Amino acid sequence: MQVTRSQISLFLCLLSCASSLGTRYTPDWASLDARPLPEWYDEVKFGIFVHWGVFSVPAFGSEWFWWYWKAAQSPSYIQFMTKNYPPGFSYTDFAPEFHAQFFDPDEWADIFEASGAKYVVLTSKHHEGFTNWGSPTSWNWNSVDNGPHRDLVGDLGAAIRKRSLHYGLYHSLYEWFNPIYLSDKQSGFKTQEFVEKKAMPELYDLVNRYKPDLIWSDGDWEAPDTYWNSTGFLAWLYNDSPVKDVVVTNDRWGLGCYCKHGGYYNCADKFTPGELPNHKWEKCQSVDTISWGYRRNMKLSEVMDLPSIIKDMVYVVALGGNYLLNVGPTSDGMIAPVFEERLRGIGAWLKVNGEAIYATKPWRVQAENATVPVWYTSKSSTVYAIFTSNPMQNSFKLLMPKTSYNTVVTLLGNPEPLKWAPLQTTGLIVLLPDLPFTPADAWTLKLDEVA
């Protein structure tokens, strides 16, 4: 059969039209998991997590205060309430005390920018169900009709974006004591009234209203993804939402999903793999090692120091992950000085060493125990060797790099090339200058033109 020129033109037009429409994702995991992760997320490496809500008012124990007090009947929580609040005081009575009167979103954004973070993730709603925006499905259990009487999600988002940082929103699918959710749970999740009236309308509202670059889903573990209608929501998010081309999602979309389905993997809280994962991942870690929300009973010994944070971040990035570091603001809207000090300390270290973190890739070897423990990252033919303790000597031996005549070694923050010599097979020995003081107790060797 002879093909006419007009038929060829029509065929080429159809191909062009199909290409312009882009990939359409169907509401099943095989299709959704095939979506490429937007490049910005892998490049930024470091973000700030913010846990803020009604739980910030009692500020005792953890952000799971309501659960431990009422469901778990924890003696310490019951004793705290008995000593400090009158009989009959309910958890909802805390909401009017969530004033946020000192909350200055620009001040927060300045601190986050100074930390060197490239994205910020705020709790839009935790498991208590209180929304930090005027959700139309939350009645008066939200920050516009109660407590602060302002749109916390929108106010912080505007300040974050003025600084060209990416803005993400944490959202808990379930709510501990919502009677509609408990009714669905009682049915064995055969009914979906909570999903249809609360969980999904909130997610659609968040996306359409605030256009987040990232959705950090949580609270999924009691029910399967089929109950949550997760694949339907994600198909809309990737195909038709206002953020379809840039949005990033995690893996908490139903019982059994984490570390298996979704955009990038959180797996468990504070996930720390022992080897290089084969999928993009993120470690969420709190500066307060006990709680994600602010605690008035927090002790300094329970707060991560700067060297520990830097060492943790370097480990995560060397293994291909992103590092999401959490702080919990007070109920009146302040970031505690101890948290601010840690964040600004990270930023000071990243100003010198950031090129070994941002937009890097895992190297063929992630770590070695050389003169001191070393973590590697890479960009093209440049390799970064980050060491998180002072070797206390001038000679520094690296066993893994394969050098050439063109190899140049420098210490980040010091522009002068360092003297080095190759070892017999692979590796090199470097003559270090006096290491500059850094509270982070970490330094980086930059190796250009290595294999």
UniProtKB/TrEMBL annotation:
It is found in: Lysosome. PANTHER family: ALPHA-L-FUCOSIDASE, TISSUE ALPHA-L-FUCOSIDASE. One of its GO terms (molecular function) is alpha-L-fucosidase activity. The record marks C284 as: May be important for catalysis. Gene3D superfamilies: Glycosidases (3.20.20.80), Golgi alpha-mannosidase II (2.60.40.1180). This is Alpha-L-fucosidase. The keyword Hydrolase applies. It catalyses: an alpha-L-fucoside + H2O = L-fucose + an alcohol; a neolactoside IV(2)-alpha-Fuc-nLc4Cer(d18:1(4E)) + H2O = a neolactoside nLc4Cer(d18:1(4E)) + L-fucose; a neolactoside IV(2)-alpha-Fuc-nLc4Cer(d18:0) + H2O = a neolactoside nLc4Cer(d18:0) + L-fucose. It comes from Sinocyclocheilus rhinocerous. The gene is LOC107724287. Keywords: Glycoprotein, Glycosidase, Hydrolase, Lipid metabolism, Lysosome, Signal. One of its GO terms (cellular component) is lysosome. It comes from the Eukaryota. Alpha-L-fucosidase is responsible for hydrolyzing the alpha-1,6-linked fucose joined to the reducing-end N-acetylglucosamine of the carbohydrate moieties of glycoproteins. Residues 1-20 form the signal peptide. Residues 19-355 form the Glycoside hydrolase family 29 N-terminal domain. Belongs to the glycosyl hydrolase 29 family. The keyword Hydrolase applies. Homotetramer. Residues 366-447 form the Alpha-L-fucosidase C-terminal domain. InterPro entries: FUC_metazoa-typ, Fucosidase_C, GH, Glyco_hydro_29, Glyco_hydro_29_CS, Glyco_hydro_29_N, Glyco_hydro_b.
